[in-house]
Amino acid sequence: MDYSQFNQEQRFRSIWNSVRIVRPIPYTLFTFGDTDLQYFVVEEPESPMGMVRVSRGKVDVTRPLLITPYNSPPEFRNLWEDQEFSEMVDFLMSRTAAFRNLKIENKQLKSELTSDNVEEVVARLNRQLDSEDEDRIAILTAPANLGPLAILKLTTERIMESARGNIQELREHGFLPE
Question: How confident is the model at residue 109 (pLDDT cuts 50, 70, 90)?
Fold first, then answer.
């Protein structure tokens, strides 16, 4: 019996659970057109004496304007640096999620925050966003080098939470039967 598929899925689930959305975005994705999801990713140091890595960016989610089932796979741009990890995500997405004709593009910026403690950086970011009354920027945490997975988790959760409202809007516009 071949357990490699099972082990790969278990490994992915463990990694998936290691990233967290500590400040979620309370808004759903647009049914038609593009939505951008802004974020800060706070990654743990690679070594005990290392510094926390903070990056800021946004993900542009392009929803299908014309829905045609099974016409193209999801497209991820500028998210993965590691080819092996990318192949593992593609493998699992092809078996567990049906995000057809979906495009996700990541645009990353540099952040000026430095610290050796994840919780300290998250607290400073929360205070900054609260003082600016900013509720459209998520804060994500991840082990070292897993920031892209945190971004994928944010995007996936927003898509899933938006689905019910998006389907209702499609019905209201006559694209789906009542």
Answer: confident
Which residues fall within 8 angstroms of residue 57, CB to CB, at 6 or more apart?
38, 39, 41, 106, 107, 108, 109, 151
CB 110 within 8 A of CB 93: no
Query: Any residues with CB less than 8 A from the CB of 29 and at least 6 apart, and which?
Result: 35, 61, 63, 158, 159, 162, 166
Indicate the angle between helix axes 4-18 and 83-96, nearest 10 degrees.
100
| Token pair 């998210």 in the structure block, residue | 79
The closest of 138, 169, 140 to 43, measured between CA atoms, is 140
Average pLDDT, integer, range 165-176: 76
The model's pTM: 0.74
Cβ burial, residue 14 (10 Å; 0-12/13-18/19+): exposed
Amino acid identity at 134: E
Handedness of CA 169, 173, 175, 178 (dihedral sign): positive
Tokens 């500590």 label which residue? 22
Tokens linked to 166: 């998006």
- Tens of pLDDT, residue by residue over 30-44, are 877 788 999 999 999
